[in-house]
TrEMBL record:
<dbReference type="GO" id="GO:0016491">
    <property type="term" value="F:oxidoreductase activity"/>
</dbReference>
<feature type="domain" description="Nitrogenase/oxidoreductase component 1">
    <location>
        <begin position="79"/>
        <end position="393"/>
    </location>
</feature>
<dbReference type="InterPro" id="IPR000510">
    <property type="entry name" value="Nase/OxRdtase_comp1"/>
</dbReference>
<protein>
    <submittedName>
        <fullName>Nitrogenase</fullName>
    </submittedName>
</protein>
<dbReference type="Pfam" id="PF00148">
    <property type="entry name" value="Oxidored_nitro"/>
</dbReference>
Amino acid sequence: MLIKVSSHIEETGACIKIKDALFPEPFASGLQYSPPARGTWNIVHIGMLVPESHQIHVCAANCLRGVVLTAEEMGAGDRFSTIAVGEHNVLQGNMEELIIDGVSDIIKKLPGKPRSILIYTACIHHFMGCDIEMIYSNLRNKYPDIDFLECYMDPIMRKSGLTPEQKTKRQIYSALKPKKINRKSINIIGSNIKTDESSELIDTIYKNRYELKDITLCKTYDEYLNMAESFLNIIYFKSALPAGEFLKDKLGQEYLYLPLCYGFDEIADNLNRLNEYLGLPKEDYKKQRLVAKDALKDARELIKNAEISIDYTAVPRPCGLARLLVENGFNVNRIYVDTFIEDDRCDFNWLVKNKPEIKIYATMHAKMCVLDRKCPENSLAIGQKAAYFTENKNFVNIVEGGGMYGFDGIVKLAGLMKEAFIKPKDIKENIQIKGLGCECLL
């Protein structure tokens, strides 16, 4: 698509008012733009959550550049290796031999044997009908003291079946083996960022003397393997539901989906679902509701009627957050999202009726690289993509909810909104860092 960039560019196709938007796909699929906001986690970051593990990515050299840079930015180059697929491998049909020999050579050259190895095969292996099962069978027989985790780097599969993120969130638990169930141990799975201990969710677990396990808390491989003993998995990201089903089938662990949300009633319902499951009395959370309400009121007094933009990388349910803010007097005028998840439907419909002029912007539409999209100086962005697209230095720099959950999470988010509104940040310096919340050398 050719665009004359010297004249005004119409927003048609890249922007639509929410009252006119279709749920869940408000925009047509086509040529895509990738904004330079890198804070979300990719498959390398997620895989590095497995302690004492080593990653091996197998694909063409051109595709390896991004994952290599991710590992280096994390300072995790010593836990990362590559096997480059060349044209001769395709022509000779020796892909299985290449992987088996390549992995064996890497293991031989490492200073010590890792407890597990995550092997990421790529699109080319799908195209060639590579015998993945035979590869893993061979490696497991050859190295019985290493757990091999079958992982994938296959962007061609993004719109069919599980996404690469869903697959990785599932596969990082694939080394867990059945253990005797401990009725006082609970896991949180599928969250890349540690959940705040001050949240009502974690408080319920600890004050009732349950042990909490989470891959974000694991320092050793044995701690990670002990996640298999928990009787319950708590999930609050929809992308981790395949992991919950996988662990239920493999280990017999039940799971509760208590989605990260922003409506007071839904938060209380989720917390009471956990209470009920644990045999605890239901609570009204009246005190927590009042504290969250006061925090929002306090933020509103500072921010007043300033325009607020929200993007889907900051929170998984941008319509839910937008509704909360609108209900509490804030002026939300933009949401940056390409597709909505089903969990956001109710809040989407509420906004259509109560704030129909909110604009929905695509983040990947090709026009987004040239649109005149700057917001007024007296405004606020929540999320890196919202900050980038509005050129707004006053932004809340979080991804994937930032570890905040429940009423406590709303209190903390309100505080971050106040801080961001007062203290501008350098946009480029902040959003170019990959995997916000993980260890990074930049």
